[in-house]
UniProtKB/TrEMBL annotation:
The keyword Isomerase does not apply. InterPro entries: LysR_HTH_N (IPR000847), LysR_subst-bd (IPR005119), WH-like_DNA-bd_sf (IPR036388), WH_DNA-bd_sf (IPR036390). The keyword Ribonucleoprotein does not apply. It holds the Pfam family HTH_1. Residues 2-59 form the HTH lysR-type domain. This is DNA-binding transcriptional LysR family regulator. GO terms for molecular function: DNA-binding transcription factor activity; transcription cis-regulatory region binding. Belongs to the LysR transcriptional regulatory family.
Length: 300
């Protein structure tokens, strides 16, 4: 008999592209994910993925199976979430989504003070908004507003994030500052190329946008170190050497402590508006406002 978890595992591998990312999404071990996939392939009698060193590429049979089961799995996830909500009336529960760095900085210190249950999910903004539309999440913090007709999701702007150039405090930025003051962008770009660069896989869009808006071209180099998240970047730069482009609110404390240096905000300021995206049919308005107030008090 087929195990429903095999299909869940198949879905996450299909959408995430690797066993490692799928295991993270499922809160499972990578060997366990492999076991589920192998069992499903044995059950259906077909190969569902081509295994490469970097990615799991779905076969035609895999694509067909995904299209056949995806809507049913989504409906099941929605049913599970609503069932939980209706059977736990004594203790309200809020399901929220955002980037992991924002959660660690803003929400994590406040969790012991909350008088309701909280389930946090991290991921790409498009995936989180999809879960919000499907009723799996109640609130998403996002820099991207989607305009959909007949949607039960409303977007309320509450703050802005500015992408800034920072450096470890042991980085020699003398020449960089010289070119910034003289507004010699050609020499500034050349000087920036000579340094060690950090970025993260989920922030490359900000990196490219800052570069294009200030130098009117795409960056002609690849960062030396691409890390899982911005928190890792800041820890690496803390009392070290190197440059990075990051949202300003994530590094304010380290700048005040002189652990890293603010180098340049750009001639053209690269900013994103941050939105509270929430469902209009949400039952727990009081709990939602508690989370919103935490953000607005910390991100003035």
């Amino acid at each position: 008999m087929v195990n429903l978890e095999w299909y869940r595992t198949f879905k996450e591998i299909y959408e995430n592209g690797t066993l490692t990312k799928a295991s993270i999404a499922l809160y499972a071990s990578q060997p366990g994910v492999s076991v589920h996939l192998n069992a499903l392939e044995a059950y259906v009698g077909k190969k569902l993925f081509e295994r490469t060193s970097r990615k799991m590429i779905p076969t035609e049979d895999g694509k067909f199976l995904y299209e056949y089961i995806i809507e049913s799995l989504k409906k099941l996830e929605i049913a599970e979430q609503h069932f939980k909500k209706t059977t736990q009336e004594k203790n309200p529960s809020l399901n929220i989504g955002m980037c992991s760095e924002m959660f660690q900085l803003i929400i994590e210190p406040e969790i012991p003070k909350l008088d309701f249950d909280l389930v946090a999910r991290f991921g790409a903004h498009t995936d989180l908004i999809k879960d919000l539309n499907n009723g799996i999440l109640d609130l998403v913090i996002t820099p991207k507003k989607q305009n959909e007709k007949r949607s039960l999701v409303e977007y309320i702007p509450f703050s802005k994030e500015r992408i800034v150039l920072i450096a470890g405090n042991k980085t020699n930025t003398t020449q960089i500052q010289k070119h910034i003051k003289s507004n010699n962008l050609s020499n500034l770009e050349a000087e920036l190329h000579q340094n060690i660069w950090y970025s993260s896989s989920n922030e490359m869009e900000h990196f490219r946008r800052f570069w294009f808006e200030n130098f009117n071209k795409k960056p002609a180099f690849k960062p030396n170190y691409i890390l899982p998240n911005i928190t890792s970047i800041i820890r690496c730069l803390n009392n070290g050497k190197g440059l990075a482009l990051v949202p300003d609110f994530l590094c304010q404390e380290q700048i005040l402590k002189n652990e890293i240096n603010l180098v340049w905000e750009g001639n053209v300021k690269t900013e994103n508006t941050l939105y509270f995206a929430s469902r209009t049919d949400l039952k727990y308005k009081k709990e939602l406002n508690t989370i919103k107030n935490i953000f607005t008090s910390k991100m003035k």
